[in-house]
Amino acid sequence: MATRPAPAKKASAKKMPAENAPAKKAAAKKPAVAAPKRKAVAAPVVTLKVVFEQLGEAHELPKKQALGLLADFVTAMTTHLKEGARIRMSGLGILEVKTRAARTGRNPATGEPIQIKASKKVTFHAAKELKEAV
Fold first, then answer.
1. How far apart are CA 113 and CA 51, in angstroms?
2. How many Cβ atoms from other residues are within 10 Å of residue 85's Cβ?
3. CB atoms near residue 55 (< 10 Å)
4. How far is CA 24 from CA 30, 32, 40, 63, in A?
5. Is residue 92 within 8 Å of 127, Cβ to Cβ?
6. What is the pLDDT of residue 42?
7. Helix (H) / strand (E) containing 55
8. Quick one: average pLDDT of 81-107?
């Protein structure tokens, strides 16, 4: 039967006070490191589907009917915006389509100039009531 060799003894901290003491004192004198900054907590996302379901419950409508209203609402808004109309929602704001002219930009990877086509974008201007409420 083989026997294990005896474990090697480790030097205790008490035998080397001169080496460890300066390190401990230096560590104690260092200024405290500031805690890392916390990232902003993302706000919860509420979809139009959820909003219309809540409206349906408030007006005692079935969920299917409330979601049908949502689909029709989005279709109507899209149609009006395509026609170039401004959509004013009392207490909420104004949606409108603005055209952006063609312009010269830069490719961020290479830095070379590129031509950006003219485009349309939907803008939203919040109503005074909404700004004050938030």
1. 44
2. 13
3. 13
4. 10, 15, 36, 67
5. yes
6. 85
7. helix 48-58
8. 94
